[in-house]
Write a structure and sequence with these properties.
The chain is α/β, with parallel strands linked by helices. About 30% of the residues lie in helices and about 30% in strands. The protein is built from nine helices and 14 strands. The strands form three sheets. Strands 5-6-7-3-8-9-14 form a seven-stranded mixed β-sheet, sandwiched between helices. A four-stranded antiparallel β-sheet has the order 11-12-10-13. It has a three-stranded antiparallel β-sheet with strand order 2-1-4, with helices on one face. The longest helix is centred in the middle third of the chain and has 18 residues. InterPro entries: AAA+_ATPase, ABC_transporter-like_ATP-bd, ABC_Transporter_VariousFunc, P-loop_NTPase.
Length: about 300
């Protein structure tokens, strides 16, 4: 099956600053991918490269087996909802549907009308008078009615209240089940990603720190707590992701495929937020074995 997103040595530079560099990804189809990282990590840059809004400075990127936005057929395969869930304030809901039908050859008018009726969005309402949650749902409807093979969403719920976020994400999950498309969802709200994503990418400092299926990542990462110990004394197959120490105690987050038998360690499992924070908190206390891992 063709990967939805494939990159090799991908980089984007603005002037002298690299917004993204040395990016290597190979994301299989059929996943809801969570893209997470702090502000300025390169998330939006990666998504704009994937949608053809930016050209790479270095390396290559392929989306659904083709060059981003290279042809009308390629454009038709990818839906995009930008960070500010863009809609046209002066246009009515019905106007947006007409515009969507004109611009998108796969347009599903019946699904768009049914969805907006279910949401209670009247056709004659102007987008500028809708609430933030309603505008987000209208933007999502436009993306879904395009019938894409890949839907890319750049922090679409960042400005919404908790109830509107939950409704948006619930609608997204229902649509992925019904129509079987892939999703890449950027967010800095890990709790939202935990609800919907089965594949994770963590970006920090313009680089991919970890990528892989969530279940696999959680199974191979552990927290070790025990007497203070130099990281050089850990087994070679225990790769330190983050570390903290007190006078008497060490706590490590490590990645390993092997069982942990050392009785000195209390071994605990991580949740998704623990995992993301470990990769974002790059303070290895001098451990030369701290590394990134891209799991496929």
């Amino acid at each position: 099956m063709t990967p939805v997103l494939q990159t090799q040595d991908l980089g984007k530079r603005y002037g002298k600053r690299w917004a993204l560099r040395d990016c290597a990804l190979d994301i299989p189809a059929g996943h809801v991918v969570g893209l997470v990282g702090p502000n300025g990590a390169g998330k939006t840059t990666l998504l704009k490269l994937a949608t053809g809004q930016l050209e790479p400075t270095a390396g290559t990127i392929s989306v659904l087996g083709g060059s981003p936005a290279a042809t009308p057929a390629q454009l038709a395969k990818v839906g995009f909802v930008a960070q500010d869930t863009p809609v046209y304030a002066g246009l009515t809901v019905a106007d947006h549907l007409k515009l969507g039908a004109r611009l998108n050859p796969r347009w599903d008018a019946a699904m768009a009308r049914e969805r907006l009726t279910r949401l209670g969005l009247a056709p004659n309402h102007r987008a500028g008078r809708l609430s933030g949650g309603e505008r987000a749902q209208l933007a999502l409807t436009l993306g879904l009615a395009k019938r894409p093979d890949l839907l890319i969403l750049d922090e679409p719920v960042a400005s919404l209240d908790p109830l509107a976020r939950r409704e948006f994400l619930q609608a997204l999950m229902e649509a992925t089940v019904a129509h079987e498309f892939s999703v890449v969802l950027s967010s800095h709200l890990v709790s939202d990603l935990e609800r919907v994503c089965d594949y994770l990418i963590v970006l920090t400092d313009s680089r991919v720190r970890v990528a892989g299926e969530v279940d696999r990542l959680l199974a191979t990462h552990h927290r070790l707590t025990g007497p203070r110990r130099d990281p050089a004394r850990l087994p070679a197959d225990q790769h330190v992701i983050s570390a903290s120490h007190t006078d008497r105690q060490s706590t490590y987050v490590i990645r390993t495929d092997a069982p942990i038998h050392d009785p000195a360690w209390l071994v605990t499992q991580l949740n998704l937020e623990d995992l993301v924070l470990a990769y974002m908190d790059r303070r290895p206390n001098g451990d030369r074995r701290l590394d990134l891992e891209v799991q496929r």
